[in-house]
Design goal:
31% helix, two-stranded antiparallel sheet, Glutaredoxin, alpha+beta, globular
């Protein structure tokens, strides 16, 4: 499935509740690059592995002036319990109701399954969609190289390396 979002256009704005039920807007992240990660489901083995790996490399991701925002169709209660269990510190947003509305906006909702595709959208600090990746198979997570390559295309050399140059 290809994303319906076009690169080098404004990323589709949305507001979704986080694990505490507080509204989070994509525009809250203006001034930061965003890795918008859609994943099929809390508690699944592949999603657990994928988001745990993102958590482990969060400082490196932030070295690109970037934040991770993860979205699934699970409800806020599931997100809260799963984030606590996995020690995830980046926001998990609930696209629960209307079911999959934001995943649909981005063209990654799997109608037959009621979940989103496994997908990444790279949004620059001005809110422009610069790159995306959608898995051909939701059982296969993105490698970290996909995240860092996407951030490289937005930001260039990470701040850590730039300060050492």
């Amino acid at each position: 499935m290809a994303s319906s979002q076009k690169t080098n256009t404004p990323a589709a704005e949305f507001t979704l509740p986080n694990a505490e039920g507080q509204p989070v807007r994509l525009s809250d992240y203006r001034g930061k690059n965003v890795v918008l990660s859609f994943y099929p489901a809390d508690w699944s083995p592949v999603c657990t592995s994928e988001l745990s790996l993102i958590q482990e490399t969060l400082d490196d991701i932030r070295g690109y002036n970037a934040e991770v925002v993860a979205v699934s169709v699970d409800n806020t209660y599931s997100h809260r319990a799963w984030a606590e269990k996995q020690r995830l510190s980046f926001p998990l947003l609930s696209d629960f109701w209307p079911h999959g509305a934001v995943a649909r906006q981005y063209g990654v909702f799997r109608e037959n399954d009621g979940i989103s595709e496994r997908a990444l959208f790279f949004i620059d600090a001005s809110g422009m969609l610069r790159d995306s990746w959608v898995s051909k198979d939701p059982a296969i997570p993105p490698g970290l190289n996909i995240i860092f390559d996407g951030l490289e295309r937005i930001e260039g050399t990470p701040q850590k390396e730039a300060s050492n140059a």
